[in-house]
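Anyone else keep sequences and structure tokens together like this?

Example one:
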Amino acid sequence: MKSNCDCAREMIGGSDGPWRKPFEPTGVNTTPQLDWGTHMSVIQVGLTDRTHKLDPQLVQQAAAALNIQVLRDLPQYWNVHATVRYLPESTQIPAGVWPVYLVGKLPDGMGGVHLDKRNQPYALVESVPGDDGWTLDASHETLEMLVDPSGNRLRTSFAIGIDANGKIHDTSGQFEYLVEACDPCEGSQYAYSIQGIAVSDFITPHFYDPKPTSGTRYSFAGNIPGPRQVLKGGYISFVDPQGQEWEQILYLGDKPQLKKLGPVEGASLRAIIDGVTYGPVREFRKGNPNLENPNFGEWCKLHRKKIHGVTLGRGKSLDDELLAGGLGPHG
């Protein structure tokens, strides 16, 4: 039987992984149908290295992979039309572009997506030279920024709790859930690969369905088994509409745990809640790297190396054809 880790990497055409086997989400056209004439204008996201210490080629490769993810995967479930590009200078951000900054270290309470003084979103991603884990975080923050730019989107569904066996289950009443597209399945063991770049799984709108139904996907890669379920390494945030006390269910140990956050107010609910949660989640991930597949990161590096070899070979072949046709080396 396949593990969730295996299924997470069985992506549709163009994705890859040592477990590669295309799948088609039930009832979903795997080719995004983008009607540019009737939908919102295209959102532009820019990935840029503020540390000036990361491998520029890797940053460019990550931007290209994120561009595929937001063009091909995300629109299958969310009404988002966006592109991602590489910005070589972190001090030159074109008007209208939502930047994703790769930074060396985040101040306390600064993880995730934020709003600038004009209430436009930007994201901060901690990155360290030699550790490619930041690509997963960049995917996470990009997807969440696109699904909910302001960080205040709420969805109402059945209330949940934790039973005596440590399982998340439905309870009476309703909660309002903060829409955080990657948090319930953010564990690195659920990542998948696009051209050798690790990217994050993300929830679908069915995540908030009242009951599970056969053939329904609750996350893009199929890791989440049912509505409002949280995978190990992830969390979900919610509030009872009859009160003001925010709560979370975090799965950062052997069993999920309920955490009281108290009242949350501000320009962006997500920015405040992520500021509280970022530290514990980060520590858990550092102590439990790639829980179910410790070789995935190394596989991604090897795959990128092979892609680079193919790229060089194809470039040389085409250049030889051009030279044979009479073009000079610079013509």
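And example two:
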Amino acid sequence: MGIVENVKDRIAILGWSQQAIEAIGKMNRPYIVVAPFEFQAYANVFGIPFIPWQFEWAIEEAHQLYETLKLWNTKLAIPIYEETVEWAGAINAKLENNPRLFQQSMLFRDKGLMKRKAQLAGMRVGIFEEAQNKQDVYYFLKRMNEAMLKVNGEVNELIHVKPFNKAGTVGHRIIQSAQDIEAIDDQEFPLLMESHLNGKEFCCEVFVHNGKIRFLNITEYVKLGHSNFVPASPSLEKWRANVTREIEKLVDAFEFNYGILHAEFFVTSDGTLNFGEVGARVPGGHIFEHIERVYGFNPFQGQILCSDPDTTDAEIEAFFPEEVVSAKGYAGIIMVYPHFNVINQLTIPEKIKNHPYYVRHEMFNPDTQMQVPVRVGTGNHYGSIYFFGQDADEMSYILNEYLYYDFYK
């Protein structure tokens, strides 16, 4: 597709997302998609304005992408995935002549910088250090156990190591012994090391416009990367005021004015919040689908509206409903992972299909015997099972009941 000279204020979607493309198409806003080369043919067939790009390229190439987007009269770049966040920051820094936007994006891509910024804002972040090699991990584990007054013969305190710039659980390891440390490949360094954070883990999807929280969803994890539901149960929602205060600290500290934040916390029984991490992109775990199911608005459209400084307050207020009280019920999901190295059949218990909360599944029945690749972190799930109902306790029960069921055998 050629460049349309008379179209102005085009929005660039960074990363391929059919849902995001459909969302902006329904808004009748001019757009262009920047995504890997393999999507070019599809874009051509369906007339989607498209720039082929590889986000694995060095960020120094951002100037070339910026020059191309200028030809398309682009006013704003919106990141969809983790790997596109710094690219959006680099492009928007040039479009708005504000170099700090790129620096801000790097805070979201470097977990060490991110935690330091949160700590400076007065948030509880635990203890963390950077590891260049295995010896650094040995020393950190030793010092953590000394700090926790562990004596010889007692089980070691848990620590965590993870890459600085990966999303979700990719590369995340729990370390408690010398064997765990030796299992780390030397090529994985440098890594972030951090103390174990106590409490129930959950996440927030925060729609921010002009530096203000316009909609705050709390997603309850049954197990990170495996199952969750929206909105959170009353036992977690009762801490909403505490959560809001911590999110406001994040917004202020990161000078985040426009877009969406996906933040993870741990909450203890007395409401104390420990900060995990934060991203400036679309969440995983089908959370946007949950939000649309229970609240009735398209979160991708919400992200687009909040990312655009020209969106008016009236548009924002008309778009977002009131949290929790306007929810039509609870939407939950089980993301299914094979527990075997080889699978050849799909089994779904009739009890699930007959449950009143069951909606549908998106799994496949292997035609032949399949080898299951070794997973990195949680890995890619092999389909999902969706639920919707009116009771948070029942939703939590069914998600827990089938968390480790062998759907693939």
